[in-house]
UniProtKB/TrEMBL annotation:
<keyword id="KW-0418">Kinase</keyword>
<dbReference type="InterPro" id="IPR050306">
    <property type="entry name" value="PfkB_Carbo_kinase"/>
</dbReference>
<keyword id="KW-0547">Nucleotide-binding</keyword>
<protein>
    <submittedName>
        <fullName>Fructokinase</fullName>
        <ecNumber>2.7.1.4</ecNumber>
    </submittedName>
</protein>
<keyword id="KW-0067">ATP-binding</keyword>
<dbReference type="InterPro" id="IPR011611">
    <property type="entry name" value="PfkB_dom"/>
</dbReference>
<feature type="domain" description="Carbohydrate kinase PfkB">
    <location>
        <begin position="12"/>
        <end position="305"/>
    </location>
</feature>
<dbReference type="GO" id="GO:0008865">
    <property type="term" value="F:fructokinase activity"/>
</dbReference>
<comment type="similarity">
    <text>Belongs to the carbohydrate kinase PfkB family.</text>
</comment>
<dbReference type="Pfam" id="PF00294">
    <property type="entry name" value="PfkB"/>
</dbReference>
<dbReference type="GO" id="GO:0005524">
    <property type="term" value="F:ATP binding"/>
</dbReference>
<keyword id="KW-0808">Transferase</keyword>
<dbReference type="InterPro" id="IPR029056">
    <property type="entry name" value="Ribokinase-like"/>
</dbReference>
Length: 307
Protein backbone atom coordinates (compact mmCIF):
# COMPACT_ATOMS: atom_id res chain seq x y z
CA UNK A 1 0.00 0.00 0.00
CA UNK A 2 1.38 3.44 -0.96
CA UNK A 3 1.55 5.89 1.94
CA UNK A 4 -0.27 9.23 1.70
CA UNK A 5 1.76 11.61 -0.46
CA UNK A 6 2.37 14.08 2.39
CA UNK A 7 4.33 11.40 4.26
CA UNK A 8 6.60 10.56 1.34
CA UNK A 9 9.89 12.50 1.22
CA UNK A 10 10.03 15.03 -1.59
CA UNK A 11 12.81 15.18 -4.19
CA UNK A 12 13.78 18.51 -5.73
CA UNK A 13 14.36 17.99 -9.45
CA UNK A 14 16.39 20.87 -10.84
CA UNK A 15 16.50 21.63 -14.54
CA UNK A 16 14.82 21.91 -17.89
CA UNK A 17 11.17 21.75 -18.85
CA UNK A 18 10.15 22.28 -22.46
CA UNK A 19 7.82 21.23 -25.23
CA UNK A 20 8.86 18.21 -27.28
CA UNK A 21 7.32 18.62 -30.73
CA UNK A 22 7.62 15.10 -32.11
CA UNK A 23 7.27 13.74 -35.62
CA UNK A 24 5.38 10.55 -34.82
CA UNK A 25 6.89 8.32 -37.46
CA UNK A 26 10.52 7.55 -38.30
CA UNK A 27 12.28 9.66 -40.92
CA UNK A 28 15.72 9.46 -42.45
CA UNK A 29 16.08 13.25 -42.79
CA UNK A 30 14.47 16.28 -41.20
CA UNK A 31 13.22 17.36 -44.62
CA UNK A 32 10.88 14.34 -44.63
CA UNK A 33 8.87 15.60 -41.66
CA UNK A 34 5.18 16.21 -42.40
CA UNK A 35 4.06 17.41 -38.96
CA UNK A 36 4.75 17.53 -35.24
CA UNK A 37 2.71 16.65 -32.15
CA UNK A 38 3.40 18.50 -28.84
CA UNK A 39 4.39 16.50 -25.78
CA UNK A 40 5.65 17.42 -22.34
CA UNK A 41 9.44 17.27 -22.47
CA UNK A 42 12.76 18.13 -20.92
CA UNK A 43 14.77 15.51 -19.04
CA UNK A 44 14.03 16.91 -15.59
CA UNK A 45 10.34 17.38 -16.30
CA UNK A 46 10.24 13.77 -17.51
CA UNK A 47 11.94 12.54 -14.34
CA UNK A 48 9.50 14.50 -12.17
CA UNK A 49 6.51 12.93 -13.88
CA UNK A 50 7.93 9.41 -13.55
CA UNK A 51 8.61 9.96 -9.84
CA UNK A 52 5.01 11.04 -9.28
CA UNK A 53 3.58 8.15 -11.32
CA UNK A 54 5.54 5.63 -9.26
CA UNK A 55 4.34 6.81 -5.89
CA UNK A 56 7.03 9.36 -5.08
CA UNK A 57 6.93 13.12 -4.66
CA UNK A 58 8.80 15.49 -6.96
CA UNK A 59 9.10 19.27 -6.92
CA UNK A 60 10.35 20.65 -10.23
CA UNK A 61 12.58 23.73 -10.00
CA UNK A 62 12.94 25.38 -13.38
CA UNK A 63 11.75 28.20 -15.61
CA UNK A 64 9.14 28.49 -18.32
CA UNK A 65 7.94 31.54 -20.15
CA UNK A 66 4.83 33.43 -19.08
CA UNK A 67 3.43 32.45 -22.46
CA UNK A 68 0.89 29.93 -23.81
CA UNK A 69 3.38 27.06 -23.99
CA UNK A 70 4.54 27.78 -20.45
CA UNK A 71 0.96 27.64 -19.21
CA UNK A 72 0.38 24.43 -21.18
CA UNK A 73 3.39 22.79 -19.53
CA UNK A 74 2.38 23.90 -16.04
CA UNK A 75 -1.08 22.42 -16.51
CA UNK A 76 0.32 19.10 -17.77
CA UNK A 77 2.73 18.86 -14.84
CA UNK A 78 0.04 19.75 -12.30
CA UNK A 79 -2.24 17.04 -13.68
CA UNK A 80 0.60 14.55 -13.18
CA UNK A 81 0.95 15.54 -9.52
CA UNK A 82 4.31 17.30 -9.78
CA UNK A 83 4.82 20.07 -7.19
CA UNK A 84 5.30 23.41 -8.94
CA UNK A 85 6.27 25.62 -5.99
CA UNK A 86 9.60 26.48 -7.67
CA UNK A 87 8.70 26.28 -11.35
CA UNK A 88 8.92 29.96 -12.25
CA UNK A 89 6.97 31.63 -15.06
CA UNK A 90 9.13 34.53 -16.24
CA UNK A 91 8.04 37.43 -18.43
CA UNK A 92 10.20 37.90 -21.51
CA UNK A 93 11.31 34.26 -21.60
CA UNK A 94 10.17 32.14 -24.53
CA UNK A 95 9.35 28.60 -23.42
CA UNK A 96 11.78 26.37 -25.34
CA UNK A 97 10.58 23.88 -27.93
CA UNK A 98 12.55 20.85 -29.15
CA UNK A 99 11.59 19.54 -32.57
CA UNK A 100 12.23 15.79 -32.38
CA UNK A 101 12.64 13.25 -35.14
CA UNK A 102 13.47 9.57 -34.78
CA UNK A 103 15.17 7.16 -37.12
CA UNK A 104 14.31 3.52 -37.88
CA UNK A 105 16.21 2.44 -34.73
CA UNK A 106 14.08 4.76 -32.50
CA UNK A 107 17.06 7.03 -31.85
CA UNK A 108 16.04 10.71 -31.57
CA UNK A 109 17.52 13.84 -33.11
CA UNK A 110 16.71 17.36 -31.95
CA UNK A 111 16.38 20.83 -33.42
CA UNK A 112 15.93 23.40 -30.67
CA UNK A 113 13.89 26.57 -30.97
CA UNK A 114 14.68 29.26 -28.43
CA UNK A 115 17.59 30.36 -26.28
CA UNK A 116 18.90 27.01 -25.11
CA UNK A 117 17.22 24.46 -22.85
CA UNK A 118 16.93 26.66 -19.77
CA UNK A 119 16.35 30.32 -20.73
CA UNK A 120 15.92 32.55 -17.69
CA UNK A 121 17.23 29.85 -15.35
CA UNK A 122 19.24 32.40 -13.38
CA UNK A 123 15.97 33.64 -11.87
CA UNK A 124 16.06 30.60 -9.61
CA UNK A 125 18.99 32.10 -7.69
CA UNK A 126 16.49 33.98 -5.49
CA UNK A 127 14.66 30.82 -4.43
CA UNK A 128 17.07 27.92 -4.77
CA UNK A 129 18.11 27.67 -1.12
CA UNK A 130 14.50 27.67 0.19
CA UNK A 131 13.69 25.12 -2.52
CA UNK A 132 16.43 22.77 -1.30
CA UNK A 133 15.42 23.35 2.30
CA UNK A 134 11.83 22.44 1.44
CA UNK A 135 12.78 19.03 0.07
CA UNK A 136 14.50 15.85 1.21
CA UNK A 137 16.74 14.96 -1.75
CA UNK A 138 18.14 16.61 -4.88
CA UNK A 139 18.33 15.44 -8.49
CA UNK A 140 20.32 17.42 -11.07
CA UNK A 141 22.54 17.17 -14.13
CA UNK A 142 24.59 19.36 -16.47
CA UNK A 143 22.13 20.43 -19.16
CA UNK A 144 21.01 23.42 -17.07
CA UNK A 145 24.61 24.49 -16.39
CA UNK A 146 25.74 25.77 -19.79
CA UNK A 147 25.52 29.45 -18.82
CA UNK A 148 27.67 30.73 -15.96
CA UNK A 149 24.81 32.13 -13.87
CA UNK A 150 22.80 28.95 -14.43
CA UNK A 151 25.81 26.95 -13.24
CA UNK A 152 25.90 28.93 -10.00
CA UNK A 153 22.26 28.02 -9.31
CA UNK A 154 23.10 24.33 -9.67
CA UNK A 155 26.26 24.61 -7.58
CA UNK A 156 24.38 26.43 -4.83
CA UNK A 157 21.70 23.75 -4.79
CA UNK A 158 24.22 20.92 -4.64
CA UNK A 159 26.32 22.57 -1.93
CA UNK A 160 23.23 23.31 0.16
CA UNK A 161 21.98 19.74 -0.15
CA UNK A 162 25.33 18.22 0.82
CA UNK A 163 25.68 20.66 3.71
CA UNK A 164 22.29 19.51 5.02
CA UNK A 165 23.18 15.83 4.60
CA UNK A 166 20.57 15.30 1.89
CA UNK A 167 21.01 12.57 -0.74
CA UNK A 168 22.11 13.95 -4.11
CA UNK A 169 21.49 12.04 -7.33
CA UNK A 170 23.48 13.20 -10.33
CA UNK A 171 22.73 12.40 -13.97
CA UNK A 172 25.42 13.91 -16.25
CA UNK A 173 22.99 14.03 -19.21
CA UNK A 174 25.88 15.30 -21.30
CA UNK A 175 24.69 17.21 -24.37
CA UNK A 176 27.97 18.39 -25.81
CA UNK A 177 26.22 20.19 -28.68
CA UNK A 178 24.93 22.76 -26.18
CA UNK A 179 28.42 23.77 -25.05
CA UNK A 180 30.94 26.01 -26.82
CA UNK A 181 33.74 23.83 -25.43
CA UNK A 182 32.97 20.15 -24.73
CA UNK A 183 35.79 20.10 -22.19
CA UNK A 184 33.78 22.53 -20.05
CA UNK A 185 30.81 20.16 -20.08
CA UNK A 186 32.93 17.24 -18.94
CA UNK A 187 34.61 19.32 -16.23
CA UNK A 188 31.23 20.45 -14.89
CA UNK A 189 29.98 16.87 -14.97
CA UNK A 190 32.95 15.68 -12.94
CA UNK A 191 32.12 18.27 -10.29
CA UNK A 192 28.81 16.51 -9.71
CA UNK A 193 30.33 13.15 -8.72
CA UNK A 194 31.94 13.70 -5.27
CA UNK A 195 29.43 13.22 -2.49
CA UNK A 196 26.65 11.94 -4.75
CA UNK A 197 24.58 9.11 -3.33
CA UNK A 198 24.00 7.97 -6.90
CA UNK A 199 25.46 8.80 -10.29
CA UNK A 200 23.40 7.53 -13.24
CA UNK A 201 25.15 7.62 -16.60
CA UNK A 202 24.98 5.92 -19.96
CA UNK A 203 27.96 4.22 -21.58
CA UNK A 204 29.00 7.25 -23.60
CA UNK A 205 28.85 9.58 -20.61
CA UNK A 206 30.79 7.10 -18.51
CA UNK A 207 33.52 6.97 -21.14
CA UNK A 208 33.74 10.77 -21.29
CA UNK A 209 33.91 11.08 -17.50
CA UNK A 210 36.40 8.29 -16.81
CA UNK A 211 38.11 7.34 -20.07
CA UNK A 212 37.03 3.72 -19.49
CA UNK A 213 35.36 1.65 -22.20
CA UNK A 214 34.33 -1.12 -19.83
CA UNK A 215 31.19 -0.16 -17.86
CA UNK A 216 32.29 -1.88 -14.65
CA UNK A 217 35.72 -0.24 -14.76
CA UNK A 218 34.10 3.13 -15.46
CA UNK A 219 31.64 2.70 -12.61
CA UNK A 220 34.44 1.81 -10.24
CA UNK A 221 36.30 4.94 -11.34
CA UNK A 222 33.27 7.04 -10.36
CA UNK A 223 33.18 5.30 -6.98
CA UNK A 224 36.82 6.27 -6.59
CA UNK A 225 35.89 9.87 -7.45
CA UNK A 226 33.42 10.01 -4.57
CA UNK A 227 30.09 8.53 -5.66
CA UNK A 228 28.46 6.02 -3.30
CA UNK A 229 26.55 4.15 -6.01
CA UNK A 230 26.71 4.10 -9.81
CA UNK A 231 24.03 2.94 -12.25
CA UNK A 232 25.12 2.58 -15.87
CA UNK A 233 22.31 2.38 -18.42
CA UNK A 234 23.07 -0.01 -21.28
CA UNK A 235 20.27 0.80 -23.71
CA UNK A 236 18.41 -2.33 -24.83
CA UNK A 237 20.91 -4.43 -22.82
CA UNK A 238 19.52 -3.19 -19.48
CA UNK A 239 21.50 -1.56 -16.69
CA UNK A 240 24.34 -2.16 -14.26
CA UNK A 241 24.61 -1.21 -10.58
CA UNK A 242 28.04 -0.93 -8.96
CA UNK A 243 28.64 0.01 -5.32
CA UNK A 244 31.11 -0.98 -2.62
CA UNK A 245 31.15 -4.77 -2.79
CA UNK A 246 28.12 -4.86 -5.11
CA UNK A 247 27.80 -5.55 -8.83
CA UNK A 248 24.40 -6.28 -10.34
CA UNK A 249 23.49 -6.43 -14.00
CA UNK A 250 19.81 -6.35 -14.98
CA UNK A 251 19.16 -7.55 -18.54
CA UNK A 252 17.08 -5.52 -20.94
CA UNK A 253 13.40 -6.11 -21.59
CA UNK A 254 12.16 -6.62 -25.14
CA UNK A 255 10.18 -3.67 -26.51
CA UNK A 256 8.73 -2.50 -29.80
CA UNK A 257 10.60 0.78 -29.59
CA UNK A 258 9.57 3.85 -31.56
CA UNK A 259 11.25 6.60 -29.50
CA UNK A 260 14.05 6.11 -26.97
CA UNK A 261 13.97 9.75 -25.77
CA UNK A 262 12.76 9.12 -22.22
CA UNK A 263 14.27 5.74 -21.36
CA UNK A 264 17.07 7.06 -19.16
CA UNK A 265 14.74 9.59 -17.52
CA UNK A 266 12.34 6.77 -16.70
CA UNK A 267 15.07 4.75 -15.00
CA UNK A 268 16.03 7.77 -12.92
CA UNK A 269 12.44 8.53 -11.96
CA UNK A 270 11.62 4.99 -10.87
CA UNK A 271 14.80 4.78 -8.78
CA UNK A 272 14.12 8.14 -7.12
CA UNK A 273 10.57 7.12 -6.24
CA UNK A 274 11.70 3.84 -4.70
CA UNK A 275 14.59 5.41 -2.80
CA UNK A 276 12.30 7.99 -1.24
CA UNK A 277 9.71 5.39 -0.26
CA UNK A 278 11.92 2.46 0.74
CA UNK A 279 15.11 4.10 2.02
CA UNK A 280 18.29 5.57 0.61
CA UNK A 281 20.35 2.40 0.47
CA UNK A 282 22.21 0.32 -2.11
CA UNK A 283 19.80 -2.53 -1.38
CA UNK A 284 16.91 -0.31 -2.46
CA UNK A 285 18.65 0.43 -5.75
CA UNK A 286 19.35 -3.25 -6.36
CA UNK A 287 15.75 -4.16 -5.68
CA UNK A 288 14.30 -1.37 -7.82
CA UNK A 289 16.57 -1.68 -10.85
CA UNK A 290 14.61 -4.47 -12.60
CA UNK A 291 11.40 -2.42 -12.31
CA UNK A 292 13.22 0.65 -13.63
CA UNK A 293 14.62 -1.24 -16.64
CA UNK A 294 11.21 -2.68 -17.46
CA UNK A 295 9.54 0.74 -17.19
CA UNK A 296 12.22 2.25 -19.43
CA UNK A 297 11.56 -0.40 -22.08
CA UNK A 298 7.83 0.36 -22.00
CA UNK A 299 8.54 4.08 -22.31
CA UNK A 300 10.20 3.54 -25.69
CA UNK A 301 6.95 2.15 -27.12
CA UNK A 302 5.24 5.58 -27.03
CA UNK A 303 6.14 8.69 -28.98
CA UNK A 304 6.34 11.05 -25.99
CA UNK A 305 9.00 10.49 -23.35
CA UNK A 306 6.30 10.24 -20.66
CA UNK A 307 3.18 9.63 -22.80
Amino acid sequence: MIAPSHRIPRTLVLGEVLVDAICEHPVARFEEVDGFVPHLGGAKANVSVVVARHGGRAALAGVVGADPWGRWLRRRLAVEGVDLDWLLSVDGVATPVAFVTTDADAEPSYAFHGAGLTPGFGALAAVIEPAVDGCDALFLGTSMQVERDHREVARTARARALERGMPVVFDPNLRLDLWADPADAIAVAREGVPGAFLVKANRGELRMLTGEDDPIAGARALLGAGAANVVVTLGPDGALLVADGVERTVPGVAARAVNATGAGDTIAGVLLARLARDGWATATLAGALPEAVAAAARSTESWGAVS
